């Protein structure tokens, strides 16, 4: 085993301390709130770096971003110039190729691995993805639960502290999906992550809904907050070795859909660790205060040089498609309801009985049997396509050549060595094994409707009681 490296001494600028993950009476403070003062030096106790190292290695000379609480807080990105996450310099130092994505300049791949090699590395070992372009929110106050309960179909009153659920923000009248999101209940607030590409739309939607809600809800956007996804079969081992002793013990009993506060070994900085991810592998999403994002990311990479690599959007897209995960704006949009999008499982049992959420009249009717006047006209399904891969925009047709659906995402699967796609098909044709055709470059290609995920998920789930 390689000798452990010295860790940068990350000194936080918090207005208090974090609550312990398993302590009921920890101090209640704003997540990653900062003082209006310059950040203290990270004082890295590391070996000398090469001249190619990122200029971001001098955080002591940069002021901490002020993340002040606000009822209506949002980001205002320059539409003409992509923003950069706090790890841009680190990506550049590792030979990243950048592309515009969600208003940010994001790495699509790195010089050390092709997209396919990076994909396979994630399935076999572990990869680290920068997802700091995603928008992190906090909702607190006495009305926060009722507010989120109204705009989503989730059963939030039954969501336990330090647990998360996939959900959707819904349009009031149609039940269409404004955005998909993950909602986490913390002891004194809710933590949400939404898509970068929906930042402006989501901000307007949330602001409007908050006006309707009246007082009692505080909304804060955690601008410049770091967020990285550690994914792969070795993710738990790598993260455990990077944590202090107390956090390491807690990680052992952290299951998929749960989160905890943790301390990186040798530092006094805390991070929020959520078990889950977008690849279908076991893994974690780690929310990091802005001043410590690069130092902690570097330490994770350097703690497992033989097993952990940076991965970009290219591998993230093929991995998520194999896992049957949606990409908003492609597989889901404002005109799609959760029932059409094969997300009925996110609608809580009590919500099905009582409603009380945006679009409930539409969605609850869709959940009914056809004999009761319910159902939908189309459903999201998976396809395995012969010949050339079917990508977004390709038409799905029946034997008579009539259009019965469309492809929303598609790629060759590095794991299965087959062409896989996701899309929508006419209700009644959606059962697994149904043979159809997909028009690719003017030619019909045989396709078979297939259950998703295409590759079995490997989440670390809690044991089920028998």
From TrEMBL:
Keywords of this entry: Aminotransferase, Mitochondrion, Transferase, Transit peptide
Compartment(s): Mitochondrion
Pfam families: GCV_T, GCV_T_C
Name this polypeptide is given: Aminomethyltransferase
E.C. code: 2.1.2.10
Binding site for substrate: 285
Subunit and partners: The glycine cleavage system is composed of four proteins: P, T, L and H.
């Amino acid at each position: 085993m390689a000798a452990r490296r010295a860790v940068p001494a990350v000194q936080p600028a918090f207005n208090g301390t974090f609550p312990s993950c398993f302590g009921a009476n920890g101090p209640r403070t704003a997540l990653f709130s900062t003082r209006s003062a310059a950040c203290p030096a990270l004082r890295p106790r590391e070996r000398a770096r090469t001249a190619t190292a990122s200029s971001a290695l001098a955080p002591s000379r940069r002021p901490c971003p002020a993340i002040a609480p606000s009822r209506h807080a949002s980001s205002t990105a320059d539409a003409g110039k992509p923003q950069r996450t706090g790890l841009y310099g680190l990506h550049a130092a590792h030979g990243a190729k950048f592309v515009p994505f969600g208003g940010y300049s994001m790495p699509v791949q790195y010089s050390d691995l092709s997209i396919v090699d990076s994909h396979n590395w994630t399935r076999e070992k572990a990869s680290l993805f920068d997802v700091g372009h995603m928008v992190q929110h906090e909702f607190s106050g006495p009305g926060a639960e009722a507010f989120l309960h109204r705009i989503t179909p989730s059963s939030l009153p039954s969501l336990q502290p330090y647990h998360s659920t996939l959900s959707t923000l819904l349009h009031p009248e149609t039940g269409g999906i404004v955005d998909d999101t993950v909602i986490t209940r913390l002891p004194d607030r809710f933590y949400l992550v939404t898509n970068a590409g929906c930042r402006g739309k989501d901000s307007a939607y949330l602001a409007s809904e908050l006006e309707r809600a009246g007082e009692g809800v505080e909304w804060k956007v955690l601008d410049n907050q770091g967020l990285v996804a550690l994914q792969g079969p070795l993710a738990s081992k790598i993260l455990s070795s990077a944590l202090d002793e107390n956090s390491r013990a807690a990680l052992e009993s952290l299951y998929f859909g749960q989160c905890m506060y943790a301390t990186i070994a040798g530092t006094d900085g805390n991070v929020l660790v959520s078990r889950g991810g977008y690849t279908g592998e076991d893994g974690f999403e780690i929310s990091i205060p802005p001043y410590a994002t690069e130092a902690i990311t570097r330490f994770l990479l350097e703690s497992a040089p033989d097993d952990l690599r940076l991965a970009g959007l290219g591998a993230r897209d093929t991995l998520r498609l194999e896992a049957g995960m949606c990409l908003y704006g492609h597989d889901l949009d404002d005109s799609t309801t959760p029932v059409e999008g094969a997300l009925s499982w996110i609608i809580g049992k009590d919500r099905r009985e009582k409603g009380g959420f945006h679009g409930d009249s539409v969605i609850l009717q869709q959940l009914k049997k056809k004999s009761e006047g319910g159902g939908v006209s189309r459903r999201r399904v998976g396809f395995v396509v012969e010949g050339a891969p079917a990508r977004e925009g390709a038409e799905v047709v029946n034997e008579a050549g009539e259009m019965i659906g469309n492809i929303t995402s598609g790629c060759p699967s590095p794991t299965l060595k087959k062409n896989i796609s996701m899309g929508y098909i006419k209700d009644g044709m959606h059962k697994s094994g149904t043979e159809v055709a997909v028009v690719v470059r003017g030619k019909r290609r045989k396709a078979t409707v297939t259950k998703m995920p295409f590759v079995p998920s490997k989440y670390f789930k809690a044991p089920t009681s028998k």
